[in-house]
């Protein structure tokens, strides 16, 4: 009986550590995927501003696509296209998904 208890305890401990590690690694990976995706959109918005094409305070994804700075962008987590109403604030260059 004691031996079974020890084995079960070891298995449960290893399983909980394994699941927690997998969760942290997967979460960090998703955060990095989103960073890459948003940085690409923000860089194209900056390029549009530097070319004096985008003069508004907010630059929508639809406007960047229309002007040829971007193609349709996909959210790497959900695998769905970003809304054309999503925008980048010109003042702080932060991306806001709608």
Structure explained in plain terms:
This protein is mostly helical and 98 residues long. It has one domain. The chain has 2 helices and 3 strands, in the order αβαββ. The chain is rod-shaped, with a radius of gyration of 22 Å. The termini are far apart.
Provide a compact summary of the structure.
The protein is mainly alpha-helical. The chain is 56% helix and 8% strand. It has one domain (2-96).
List segments where confidence is low: pLDDT < 50 over at least 5 consecutive residues.
none
Give the C-alpha Rg. Answer: 22 Å
Strand order of the largest sheet: 1-2-3
Number of helices: 2
Secondary-structure blueprint of this entry?
Layout: H1 2-50, E1 58-60, H2 61-66, E2 87-89, E3 95-96
Antiparallel strand pairs: 1-2, 2-3
Features of the shown structure:
2 helices, 3 strands, 3-stranded antiparallel beta sheet, mainly alpha, 98 residues
């Amino acid at each position: 009986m004691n031996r079974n208890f020890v084995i079960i305890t070891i298995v449960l401990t290893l399983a909980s550590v394994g699941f927690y590690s997998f969760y942290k690694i997967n979460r960090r990976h998703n955060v990095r995927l989103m960073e890459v995706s948003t940085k690409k959109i923000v860089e194209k918005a900056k390029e549009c501003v530097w070319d004096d094409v985008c003069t508004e305070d907010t630059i929508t994804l639809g406007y960047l696509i229309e002007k040829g700075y971007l193609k349709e962008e996909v959210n790497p987590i959900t695998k769905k296209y970003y809304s054309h109403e999503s925008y980048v604030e010109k003042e702080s260059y932060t991306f806001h998904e709608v």
